[in-house]
Amino acid sequence: xxxxNRTASVRNESENAPQEKGKKHVQLIEKTxxxxxxxxxxxxxxxxxxxxxxxxxxxxxxxxxxxxxxxxTPLYEAASTSxxxxxxxxxxxxxxxxxxxxxxxxxxxNQVTSGVFEKVGGYETxxxxxxxxxxxxxxxxxxFHRIGFKTKTALLGKDSFGNPLHKKLDKPAQKSLxxxxxxxLLNQPVQGEGLSLDALQESAFRTITKLMHRQQTSCYSRxxxxxxxxxxxxxxxxxxxxxxxxAFKFLTLNWGSSPFLAAQxxxxxxxxxxxxxxxxxRYYKRFKDLEKTNEFIPTPTEVSYYHLLDEAFHTTMSQVxxxxxxxxxxxxxxxxxxxxxxxxxxxxRGLMGGLSGGxxxxxxxxxxxxxxxxxxxxxxLFDMNHEDAxxxxxKCLCHEHDGFHVNLKYHQTQLSDLRRFFDRLDYLxxxxxxxxLVAAGGSxxxxxxxxxxxxxxxxxxxx
Length: 463
Description:
Structural class: mainly alpha
Number of domains: 1
Radius of gyration: 23 Å
Largest sheet: none
Distance between the termini: 53 Å
Helix content: 55-70%
Number of helices: 21
Number of strands: 0
Strand content: under 5%
Shape: globular
């Protein structure tokens, strides 16, 4: 999967390269790269995805029961055995759809930052690992999508893809409803449209970036050079809960203009790595338990197992680049420190600033998930009418129940892991190094209060 030219350059690294052979993190990068290539499970994952048959996996839990949509809620307690199985399967699908979107982000920014390290010189092995990861992510994403599509089709029907909030609404009403609720969540005016505005914005982004990194023009990412006037950007996954697509164009230019910021990107990626591991390790452990007792292993459980083995190397790279490689470069400027801190602050607030009562190991308010919950309850799986769906949503999201407490347990685990990682980054503000926004998000009372307010608005949009 790695190009011959890149592989050859790894073998002939310059003796004068900035990554001296004696540095421990250089040795770790080399070891990680070789181990990742030797153990690569992408072919196995690809085969599992292509051969997945939902009917052969439908009567088994794919993960712990608490890793189920709406787990611990009054609705879950009242659900039938088949509905509980479906909620366990749909949770896996939802989490790995988010993972697929985040890995799409990774594919882009691995290339952006690798283009910077390539320009600096002496980081050939590091660049080879990032190239290899990008290739792996493509296979991972394909597998997640295949399993997700087949599962949702079997459980919810083909209409579940792009399904309106209520099947009786005509298309104009659907579009209006979604737009109104989105604007309520974002609490901001509709942005202007048109190529002229986009062009002006991108021009301003380039001007600011060049001004702030004028001493490092020789480090501009080779990947971005090849893109010319186009600024690639990310939308879903981490990006989708952090900033707007236009803001991410600005981040793309910055992560692609400075060695320090290229390394800093991996502290943001580490948040995704830690978030994934918090729930994926539970699937890994379930696989091992089933294997030990020689029981049937559902395909999605096996996918999670092998995915974690691949991702372990990616996590190691996130850690070594963000905690060690950044020290190879000049100390960050005031601008670089500011931008780095704003990024982590926004990630805290967007990705982990709340507590879901309907989705375990998801640390955001349920406001953005309410349309999905409504679709689920009015789907063939529960076949509720409008009034019953709202009744159960209110009971599940606006009152204390066991599901909230289960999520608090996972929240504390992730908070501890994040603090342990970010405590070593000396350029961060205390609010970021101590993950204060994440800590504040672990409040059951605040989560319920926010859900009550969001549900009141949501119920009006579907009245």
